[in-house]
Amino acid sequence: MHDDAIEPFFATLAAANPSPQTELEFTSVFELLCAVLLSAQATDVGVNKATKRLFALAPTPQRMLALGLDQVTELIRTIGLFRTKAKNLTQTCRILVEQHGGEVPRSREALEALPGVGRKTANVVLNVAFGEATMAVDTHIFRVANRTGLAPGRTPLAVELKLLERVPPKYAVDAHHWLILHGRYVCQARRPQCERCVVRRWCDTAASTMPAEG
Question: Right CATH number for 3-20+135-207 from 1.20.1250.20, 3.60.20.10, 2.60.120.260, 1.10.1670.10?
């Protein structure tokens, strides 16, 4: 993707969805952290079903610890890797209570020190909860960034760094939401929906296979 295409690419995505949101359901920074931690190799829909029950009983790290590992495990049983995630979640709650006064820290270093929280999860929390211009590169963003030519890279970190370099500052806070949603619903893995893509004229792949508009 040529540098001149980046501004109209994001302006078009912004016009179509001015206030993009994560599809995970949460009512606090703590619930967001839990939901993102549970979302690895799981759908947002599946996570939301489980967390609806979980958060009703344990909306704080203190309450989560009081539930205990066995009950947390049972409540998230429908999510992939639930045993490991339950263990990470309860250990994370213990650290939040013992080291952070029950609050979610807003530094990358402190977030990544929590069990089950990697760079991508930390980026989501920093972006969604604290409004930082981070890029949480999941499979959708990785695919869209490479397929469109926006930020080609062989690893998620390479794509993340390229996005941070190329995304205009005024779009930086919302960019990862637009790219995730675009990858989830339009630029899909098996069959990209190029015929209904609003940004196809700036996409390296689509531009090579169909005539540009207007």
Answer: 1.10.1670.10
